[in-house]
Amino acid sequence: MFAHAPVIFAALGGPTHLVEGANQAFLDTVGVEQATEVSGRPVAEVVPELVHQGLLPVLDSVYRQGEPFVAHGVGVLLGPAGKTRLRYFDFSLEPRRDQAGRVRGVAFVAVDVTRQRAAHKLAAEQQVLLEQIARDAPLAEVLDGMCRAIEKLSPKVLGSVLLLDQTGTRLLHGAAPSLPDFYTEAIDGSEIGPREGSCGTAAYRREMVVVNDIATDPLWTDYRDLAARAGLGACWSAPIVSSAGELLGTFAMYHRTPQTLREEDLDLSIVFTRTAALAIERNRTELARREAHEREHALSSDLEFVLRTSTAVSEEARYPHNLQRLAELAVPALGPVCVIDVIESGRVRRVAVALAAELPAGARALLTTEEAGDVENGPVGRVLATGASEVSRAVPGGAWRELGVDITGQVCVPLTARGRTFGALTVVATTQHPLGARAIALAEELARTAAAGAETTRQHAQQAQLAHDLQAGLLLAALPEVPGAHLAAFYRPAGEGLDIGGDFYDAFPLPGDRWGLVMGDVCGRGAYAATTTALVRTTIRAVAPLLPTPDAVVGAVNHALLARADSDESFVTLIYAELHRTRDGVAVRMVRAGHPPPLLCRTDGTVACPNPAGRLLGVSPELGLGTELFTLRHGDDLVLVTDGILEARSPAGTLFGEERLVAALRPTARLADARRILDAVTTAVDGFTGGVTDDDQAALVLVSG
Which residues form the GAF domain (predicted)? Predict the structure, then answer.
């Protein structure tokens, strides 16, 4: 019944326990080939190693007392000295009886549970490792624990894990707690190939490689001396492969002496290779997640930086102050030094320099005054010409070499808006502030985003300067010295001053010790208003010396306006007065053509409003002008304003109006100072409006003196 069963069976007889019969499993267990080798011999002779392990007294007890004996998981050392192996058994000893019921021997029945016991231990160790993996323990900790678990389950084994590098061509150290340090250091980074020891070959073949004797195996030719120095005799290595079939590394089991692969060791290799694959895959997934999170965080941080910087540049309305602000915000986020160069009138001009606090104090002056030729012939000139970024790992020349800073490279990126490159932003790197790919990309994005706002501000500044220059050409560069009187004038363009306004004033000498005084306002803004203003001023100056009366002069201006082909597109309001010094002060002859009336302020504090009637100019040949005559006595003043003063609005929308203007002038009686009177007017208007105006404002004050 037990002849070919996996259960171990032997029939023992007599008090010396002679082997009367045994199955093949028994013979295999005790290490003999034929039943004749054990038949009729005492079990103590067949398996002498049992004598000192307590089994014979148990057999004696069952034989004498006739009571069966059962035991589980009993460890038994089998084999001669030097080749002893530990096995575990579940066994039972049953008394064998004759027909009379007397005990004549013992039946030995056992089951080898060594592998089951090892499997339980293996499962327990694997469970610990799986728990470590589940709580995201560091990969090195998991792999180290795995090697130690293997060495605990198979005490003669030395475990090792190597990990595939990013190139897929080499194996890097993962864990090897019991191997010598010099050995793990030597094989760290070893190549994958067909004759690269057990591990490199296993990775190359994608299959388990068993080397029972390192000293003679050709796979170890290049590593044999190293293995001998480490005292290694055998190595079995298996590839660690992901669930998708991707190579992750290798798992190796070393022995100090040549060994043949056992079934138990193969079980260990299979289980722990799978566990290692799970740990490595989990670690890779976690690293990928963290890297993705870090990239997302970096992208969010970079985007916030770009938006914040671009907003700051856009909010700085003055050019090139906004580019200086851009350079300052780029340091030290992008690098320790940032300069910005722009093209102006065909030449390159440096408009911004920013440096980290730790740089030498004189660095700013050196960079600010860098020779234009050095700039134009270097990366800046090329970037301005091509509109493409330029990255260099070379140290820039010129003033940069005099900074006393260890510069390791630079990036120069274009400032491009509306398809035109108008400037270049340069950031340098030092050994303390290296220039990485992220900084380069961030510099390009920052320049691209900030360029539009900077260029808009630059164009506004140029347009405002052009408008200012043209407006200055339409106004007096300086008021003349009028005998017997003092003059002061004020002009403020609407908004940002980007368009030429239509408000103007003038004072010029006439024959006979007379003077002409003009205050006017052309409807509209821009070039048409400028040409109309020029026409009015030129006409007045041309005809005033020739015509006898102010109304005749204004009539000539009206005729000139109506004579234009586009006369229906504009009209003009105007006050023209002729002044003549007398013994009592200044005699005034005045006409008003649709313009706000002037204010006559006497020294006694009264304010009068000379009001000669008249229509707008440029509308009709009939003006209906009237001339008013009056005298400014010593200390009296005459104040002329445009409608931008009277129609200035408070934040609530209320008009400033004539009453507030009169109220502002009353305290100035007896001042006899044209500038201080003018300041009183502008202060009152600014206080009322908060300094904000949507129309041009002009005022002219004449004080008799």
Answer: 134-290, 318-464
Strands 637-641 and 627-633: unpaired
- Set out the domains of the chain in order of their start, with CATH numbers: 8-115 (3.30.450.20), 136-286 (3.30.450.40), 317-465 (3.30.450.40), 476-704 (3.60.40.10)
Q: Which residue is associated with the tokens 């001396």?
A: 225
* Strand intervals (E) in 481-526: 485-492, 503-510, 514-522
Q: Token pair for residue 245?
A: 């079939």
d(C-alpha 680, C-alpha 645), whole Å: 13
- What percent of the chain lies above the pLDDT cut of 70? 94
Q: Is the peptide bond before 332 cis (omega within 30 degrees of 0)?
A: yes
Rounded to the nearest angstrom, the gap between the alpha carbon of residue 454 and the centroid of all alpha carbons in its chain is 21
Q: Which two tokens stand for residue 665?
A: 């002038």
Q: Per residue in 232-250, pLDDT tens?
A: 999 999 999 998 999 999 9
Helix (H) or strand (E) holding 269: helix 263-315
Whose CA is closest to 480, among 579, 575, 576, 590?
Answer: 579
Please give the Cα distance from 252 to 273 (Å, whole number).
9
CA-based nearest residue to 609, from 619, 620, 622, 595 = 595
Show the DSSP H helices in 475-562 as ranges: 527-543, 550-562
Element (H, E) at 593: strand 585-593
Q: Is the peptide bond before 320 cis (omega within 30 degrees of 0)?
A: yes
Q: Is the predicted pLDDT of residue 403 greater than 90, yes or no?
A: no
| Phi/psi-derived region of residue 579, left when phi > 0, alpha when psi is between -120 and 50, beta in every other case | beta
Angle at 296 between CA 293 and CA 297, to 5 degrees: 85
Distance separating alpha carbons of residues 396 and 413, to the nearest angstrom: 15
Hey, how many other C-beta atoms are within 10 angstroms of the C-beta on 151?
Answer: 16
* Beta sheet of 607-608, edge-to-edge order: 485-492, 697-704, 637-641, 599-601, 607-608
One-letter amino acid at 701 equals: V
In whole angstroms, give the CA distance from residue 377 to residue 379.
7
By C-alpha distance, which of 533, 549, 531 is closest to 491? 533
Within 8 A by CB and 6+ apart from 176, the residues are 147, 158, 159, 160, 161, 183, 184
Q: What DSSP assignment string belongs to 78-124?
A: ESSTTS-EEEEEEEEEEEEE-TTS-EEEEEEEEEE-HHHHHHHHHHH
Question: Within 10 A of 38 (CB to CB), how many other CB atoms are there?
Answer: 22
pLDDT at 295: 75
| Residue 194 token pair | 């067909």
**Which amino acid belongs to residue 122?**
L
Taking only the tens place, the pLDDT of each residue in 515-531 is: 999 999 998 766 678 88
186 Cβ partners below 8 Å, 6+ apart?
226
In 3D space, the residue among 481, 485, 483, 515 whose CA is nearest the CA of residue 704 turns out to be: 485
Spatial contact of 343 and 321, defined as CB atoms under 8 Å apart? no
In a 3-state reduction of DSSP, which class is residue 22? strand
From the CB of residue 232, how many other CB atoms can be counted at a distance below 10 Å?
A: 23
pTM of the model: 0.46
Structure confidence by residue, pLDDT tens digits, 63-120: 999 999 999 989 888 888 777 788 889 999 999 999 988 999 999 999 988 877 776 7
Which of the two residues, 441 and 570, has the higher pLDDT score? Answer: 441
Helix (H, G, I), strand (E, B) or coil at 249: strand
User: Can you tell me the distance from the alpha carbon of 432 to that of 93, in angstroms, rounded to the nearest whole number?
Assistant: 81
Q: Mean pLDDT check: name the lowest of 205-219, 345-359, 473-487, 515-529.
A: 473-487
Token pair in block for residue 104? 């004549």
Tell me the pLDDT band of 415, cut-offs 50, 70 and 90: very high
